[in-house]
Amino acid sequence: MSYRSSKNRRTSVKERRGWLIQSLQTHLLPVLLEQGFAVAPAVAPGHSGPVERELVLALPLGRLVRHREGGVDLIEIDFRKYRRAAFRIAAGVAPKEGLMTLTGHWPAEDIHVGWLNEFYVMYALPRWRVSFFTWHWPYQSPTQGDYQRLAQRVAGFVPELELALREGGLGPHMRRFLIPRTFIRQEQTDAVV
Q1: Which residue has the higher pLDDT, 90 or 103?
Q2: Residue 1: its pLDDT value, please?
C-alpha cells in the first residue's frame, strides 16, 4: 500500500477551501437571499486604485446587501487568513446616506462592515473569537460532507444575524464591536492639533 492511498489521502488547503465555498453557496447563501439580501462584489465597481489581494481572497462570496427603512444591512462571510478553510460572518447596518471617510464619500452599498462604528461578528465560539471550521482528528483530513454539515449548521444561525441587524440583540454566537463616540471625537481633535 502506498503512502498516499486513496483512503488516507490528505486533502490540500486549496481543496478544503473549495469545498467550504461550494458548501456555503449551496446551503447558507440561498437562506440569506431568501431574507432579501443581494450579492455585491467584494470590491465596489467604481473603486479606483489598487485592490488588496487579501481582501478579494477573504471575501470569495462577495458582500451581501439589503436595503430597508433604517439603513442598509451588510453581511460579509469573511474567510480567515492564509487561505484556511475557516470563516466568520460580519454584519452591520450602514446609514442610507453612506459614509464619509478619509478617501471621500462612500455610498451605503459599497461600505465594508469593518468601517462601521458598531458592527457584529458571528463566531463558533464568540468568547474566544474562534471561527467556524470543521473539526477532525489529528492525521485525518475532513471530507466534503463535513463542510456540507458545517454550512447547514451555520445556515440555522441566520435568525441570530437578523436579531442583531434589526434590534441590536446578541444571540449565542454573536459578538458586538463598538467604537465609542468619545474615542472618535478624541482622535479627530488630536488630528486637528
Answers
A1: 90
A2: 38
d(CA 167, CA 89): 18
Measured between alpha carbons, how far is 92 from 111 in angstroms, rounded to an integer? 10
Residue 144 has pLDDT above 50, yes or no: yes
Q: Which of 69, 71, 59 is nearest to 29 (CA)?
A: 59
Task: Name the amino acid, one letter, at 50.
Answer: P
Q: Where are the beta strands (DSSP E) in 69-173?
A: 71-79, 87-94, 99-101, 104-106, 118-122
Q: Return the number of other C-beta atoms located less than 10 Å from residue 166's C-beta.
A: 12
Q: Within the chain, where are the H helices?
A: 13-34, 53-58, 144-155, 158-167, 181-192
Phi, psi of 22, deg, nearest 5: -65, -40
pLDDT confidence band for 185 (50 / 70 / 90): low
What is the pTM (predicted TM-score) of this model? 0.83
Helix (H) or strand (E) run with residue 20 in it: helix 13-34
Q: Which of 178, 171, 64, 179 is nearest to 124 (CA)?
A: 171
Query: 150: number of CA atoms within 13 Å, CB side?
Result: 27
What 3-state DSSP class applies to 88? strand
Among candidates 87, 86, 31, 37, which has minimal Cα distance to 64?
37
Distance CA 132, CA 123 (A): 6
